[in-house]
Design a protein that fits this description.
With 326 residues, this protein is α+β, with helices and mostly antiparallel strands. The protein is 35% helix and 21% strand. Among the domains are: 2-124, no CATH class; 244-325, 2-Layer Sandwich (Alpha-Beta Plaits), CATH 3.30.70.1070. It has a four-stranded antiparallel beta sheet. Helix 1 (2-11) packs across helix 2 (58-67), helix 2 crosses helix 3 (71-89) and helix 4 (174-221) packs across helix 6.
Length: 326
């Protein structure tokens, strides 16, 4: 399956790869372990969540780029492949080479088993588990020295044998060595986590921008045949009060929208409800059709908005979308 190969490739770069209308493959970081002399490097294990079915554009864009086709054609191809997977899953085990396999149990619940042989952590690429044999202690033998002293005073030859007490060889301070190695390992893991988090956030922003540009392009290129429409006289009141309009945008804002409402009062009730839940909710820029948008939050930077969007979608499991106010 070509699509399964692309999923495996994307898991090296993304923590979440969503297959539209099917589910999402997620990676979970597992720290290095030492069990009974067996050393295992840091790695990322794969899990599957069938509740994350909304298209985030990552797989479709990658599929279109690798096959040199349009974004819409890539989506249609993925839909056909997903339909085939669902039919096969009812009667047999569905395998994703390098990722894992899934099947339905007797209760018709989906069971996913990760492949387990592939480490998706790029920082640990090439590292393999190994077993350390125990160190054998070498016994230290005591040396006995015999010293003969001639007595010149009484011309008597006496053999004096001295056996000095042997000194125990100094013990190596292994605890200090292991402490230094442990501190260095923790520092490396902290640095790796920081840069990997920055990389994942940057990739999410880029993918969100691509999806936003694609949506704008689809809207601009779309055409509709509405037939002949009779002339309608509409009386328009040009005196719009400021409280009935959205906020004036004097610079670029990045908002996470919770919903759009035709009635301003409903939008304000939604904003109040979000504020009670702890969000810094606000009224975002109104749509061209005159709908009032209630936002989980409005931010001056794109990174803050993307982080909140992914938290709401993948942690709180709620619907939200991203808006650039200009």
């Amino acid at each position: 399956m070509v699509l399964a190969k692309f999923i495996q490739e994307l898991l090296y770069q993304h923590e979440c790869v969503t297959v539209p209308s099917f589910g999402a493959f997620l990676t979970r970081t597992v720290e290095a372990r030492v069990v009974n002399g067996a050393f295992s490097p840091p790695q990322k294990e794969v899990t599957f969540n069938r509740l994350l079915v909304a298209n985030d554009g990552v797989l479709a864009h990658y599929f279109a780029k690798r096959n040199k086709i349009s974004y819409e054609m890539a989506l249609r191809t993925i839909e056909k492949e997903v339909s085939s997977w669902k039919k096969r899953l009812n009667t047999q085990t569905l395998r994703f080479p390098g990722v894992g396999e899934m099947h339905l149990n007797e209760e018709k619940k989906l069971v996913f088993s990760p492949w387990g042989k592939v480490n998706f952590d790029l920082l640990s690429y090439g590292l393999k588990a190994f077993h350390r044999n125990p160190i054998k202690e070498v016994p230290h033998f005591k040396e006995t020295k015999i010293i003969s002293i001639m007595s010149e005073a009484n011309n008597n030859e006496e053999d004096l044998i001295f056996t000095p007490e042997p000194k125990d060889p100094p013990k190596e301070n292994n605890s200090l060595r292991y402490a230094i190695i442990g501190i260095a390992g923790i520092a490396l893991l902290a640095v790796a986590y920081y840069f990997s988090d920055q990389y994942v956030t940057t990739q999410r922003i880029e993918q969100q921008n691509l999806a936003q540009q694609q949506i704008k392009s689809n809207v601009q290129q779309a055409s509709f045949d509405l037939g002949s429409i009779s002339t309608v006289d509409v009386a328009v009141n040009a005196n719009v009060t400021p409280e009935n309009a959205g906020p004036v945008v004097d610079k670029t804002y990045y908002s996470v929208i919770a919903g759009s409402f035709r009635d301003l009062e409903n939008a304000q009730q939604k904003i109040a409800s979000l504020a009670e839940e702890g969000f810094q909710s606000a009224l975002a820029q109104s749509s061209p059709d005159g709908f009032y948008r209630a936002a989980f939050g409005r931010f001056a930077t794109k990174r803050e908005a993307i982080n909140l969007l992914y938290f709401i979608k993948y942690t709180l499991k709620e619907e939200a979308w991203y808006l650039v106010e200009q």
